[in-house]
Amino acid sequence: MSGMFTDRDEDRDGAAPAAGAEVEPTQEGTAPPRAPGRRRSRTVLVAAAFVVVTAVAAVGALGLGGDGGEGPAAPPRAGSTVAVTRATLVERTKVDGTLGYGAEIPLPAKASGTVTWLPEAGTVAERGDTLLRVDDRPVVLLYGTLPMYRELGTTAGTAAPDTTGNPTPPAPGGAGGKGGTDGGTDGGTDGGTDTASGGTTGTGGGTGTGGGTGTGGGGNTDAPPRSTPPQPLRGMDVLQFESNLAALGYTGFTVDERFTSGTERAVKRWQKSLGLPETGRVGLGDVVYASGRIRLGQPSVRLGAAAGENVLGYTGTTRKVVVDASAQEASWAVRGAGVAVGLPDGTAVRGQVASVGRQVTAPEGDGGTSGAAPTVPVTVTITDQRSLGRLESGPVSVEYVGRKRENVLAVPVAALVALAEGGHGLETEDGRFVTARTGLFADGMVEVSGPALRAGLKVRIPQ
Fold first, then answer.
1. Which contiguous run of DSSP H or E holds residue 444?
2. Does pTM top 0.70 for this prediction?
């Protein structure tokens, strides 16, 4: 029995069993046990092989140095390839904007009295339309840039100037009388005698009696005053008004700077059509001038309130976009520059910078503590108003062109790989890596340059 245990112990230690020793038969269906030492050595060999393979792969991927811009070749990897191309890259930037009709302007109505009728907000008014009524008199829209600053009409007649030299008639029975004195002086050369009531005697022609009535060239008699006919009013405001009157179909006068009787007759016909007294004169508050068609805003007063220049506001009828652009990055906002306006439904329409504000505004309620940049208002007009559909107001985006690079080498941004030593590179079709300096990024492409890069070179997009 002891020998059998010894033989098993020696066999367990890896030694061959002694001759003639009895060997315990192996049970059916059971694998023979493996030596522990052999299992450990086999595990070590597998781990060492994995480290070697990993190190080789790392060297192939990261050994990109080289002053010539190329590194050692690595085993080719699966993935799509693209060619380096020459292209023009354009940097586009989007900013937020607001679609609308612009800021409202107070209507310069000069009528005084009580407001008796107001239009509905959003009403579009043209030349000749009634904007509001004050004391039940219409205030009419006309086109022009010169504001109404005086009443228009023919001027009143004036008295003829007094050329007699006697602005004041002589007092009857005065001491000597004015006429007696004049008679004695003026007629003296004719040798007459002037005797004035009151005891004054003079030499010369004529005899003055009573209050100075001279005969023989002595006294003067005042002539009755003469009047002149009404004179036409002149001015550029007359020309502006007559142009509107003619455009409304009232003629019979010459459109010029003179408000003549012909203009007056045309005004009376116009007043009759408006239900106004036919005076032929245009009052200061009867009309309001604007540069063209206007869109009326929300009234600021109720019916029955006193009229004034802040009764009603208005805007133009053209929809536009206002952008509060960063004052530090507003170099794109040049009058006439083209932009793309993105609408809420995802469509884009063409726009053009119309004006750039000159007043810089700090963010509302900021106080300079948040670090937000000041802004300037940029107005963008849209020529094709029909492209906006029925949209009248709301948030939109404005896309403008920033930097632009023409005829440069470019690849998709996805083709760039980060290099171990820093910077970026590209993997060629045969597995080599070349350095690439990046420039402008735009539309998913990137500008690249380097000594090993050329148009047509095939590079791999990493998976």
1. none
2. no
The pLDDT of residue 155: 82
Q: Which of 129, 125, 110, 109 is closest to 315 using CA atoms?
A: 125
Residue 98 to residue 342: CA distance in whole angstroms: 11
CATH number of the domain at 93-101+319-363+373-402, out of 2.40.30.170, 3.20.20.80, 1.20.1080.10, 3.40.605.10? 2.40.30.170
DSSP state of 20: T
Task: Please give the Cα distance from 334 to 216 (Å, whole number).
Answer: 89
The DSSP H or E segment spanning 178 is: helix 178-186
- Inter-helix orientation angle 236-247/261-274, to 10°: 50
Model pLDDT, residue 352: 96
Residue 65 pLDDT: 39
3-class secondary-structure state, position 275: coil
Give the CA distances from residue 356 to residues 300, 318, 324, 334, in Å, rounded to whole numbers and listed in that order. Answer: 29, 18, 10, 7
pLDDT at 229: 72
CATH for 81-89+404-460 (2.40.420.20, 3.40.50.880, 3.40.50.2300, 3.90.550.10): 2.40.420.20
Closest CA to 432 of 66, 31, 192, 74: 74
| Count of CB atoms situated within 10 Å of the CB of 398 | 24
For residue 39 the two structure tokens come to 């299992």
Per-residue confidence (pLDDT) for residue 443, from 0 to 100? 87
Weakly modelled stretches of the chain, pLDDT under 50: 1-76, 78, 157-160, 167-219
Of 454, 442, 453, whose CA–CA distance to 92 is shortest? Answer: 442
User: Which of 338, 341, 342 shows the shortest CA–CA distance to 354?
Assistant: 338
How confident is the model over 202-236, as pLDDT tens digits?
444 444 444 444 444 444 555 556 666 777 899 99
CB 141 within 8 A of CB 119: no
| Sequence ranges of the domains in the chain | 81-89+404-460, 93-101+319-363+373-402, 105-153+230-314
DSSP state of 21: P
Q: Are 183 and 208 in contact (CB under 8 A)?
A: yes
105-153+230-314 under CATH 1.10.101.10, yes or no: yes
Tell which phi-psi region holds residue 247, choosing left (phi > 0), alpha (psi between -120 and 50) or beta: alpha
CB 183 within 8 A of CB 195: no
Task: Describe the chain by its helix, strand, coil percentages, rounded to 5.
Answer: 20, 30, 50
**Structure tokens that stand for 270 in this block:** 């116009």
Confidence at residue 20, expressed as pLDDT on a 0 to 100 scale: 40
Token pair, residue 367, equals 């106080």
